[in-house]
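Fold it.
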Amino acid sequence: MLDVAGTWLTPEDRHLLRQPQVGGMILFARNTESPAQVRELVRAIRSERPDMLIAIDQEGGRVQRLRRDVVRLPALGRICSEAPDNAEEVAEAAAWLMATEMLACGIDISFAPVLDLDYGRSEVIGNRSLSGDADELIRLGRAYIAGLHRAGMAATGKHFPGHGWAEADSHVALPVDDRSEEAIRASDLKPFAALASVLDGIMPAHVIYPAIDSLPAGFSIAWLQRILREELGFDGVIFSDDLTMAGAHAVGGMSERVDAAVRSGCDMLLVCNDRGAAEQALAHAQRIGIQPGARLPRMLARRSPGIDYKHDPQWSRAMTLLKHNGLIESLA
């Protein structure tokens, strides 16, 4: 899964998209001016590759790539604090609103929900998390996933097995969570274990958990194969986190990162915000003969509600619910 620099495709972008090892595109804020422009960009991508998986990070709060002419969604952590009496209903409505707007743009998935526990330690997670309590997070996470599914969008939980305790930001450093395996299982792992059967995708953390493995979770056979696949029974898509992040450098250069992510069991590898690195990863993938993962089609949009979704009675109900709880900032 790669990215492009702007709001339209260059000839170089189109050439890249035609490579069979490129199975996905992720959109960032620089790619999104308005829903109409995003729809046109997506049409251009699909004219080259109709089967392309198109993703975005549209969590709400500080992580919302498309902001103009869409609902300014709340950070997930605000749902429980500001709607304690009906938090599950609000979580489902927020997910449905987000998914409906993104599907109308032609986008298949937003990488959500965040299932990390908020311990008040990690600034990169913070109120992106639904809760600091595992049982509460499970309830709200299940409701959020139900909202995505009701809209027709697959759900991707992140960052397995939990990024909330490690203080460093894996975008710029290599975080280490030095707790015991028992402590991690009794807390951070619980939401992923409880929701594995309803999640369609999971994204592991670029965090080292020395009690389990010396490698970051996204490169760890112990985490992804022994625990996630075999123990938790997860059969969905495993997305690597961005292989250009500092937390991924622990295993070496780009070729080594691709090898390690494939070996650990990742179905799709993200290489973002660095075209040179993306070309290196693609060239290495071509040399070693990586084939598209059989699970990936499960992540494609299950239903497109069309661009007239604001006339859907569900839209009015969801908007009223979030407004009543003070969770909609504005329509940009």
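The chain has a mean pLDDT of 93.
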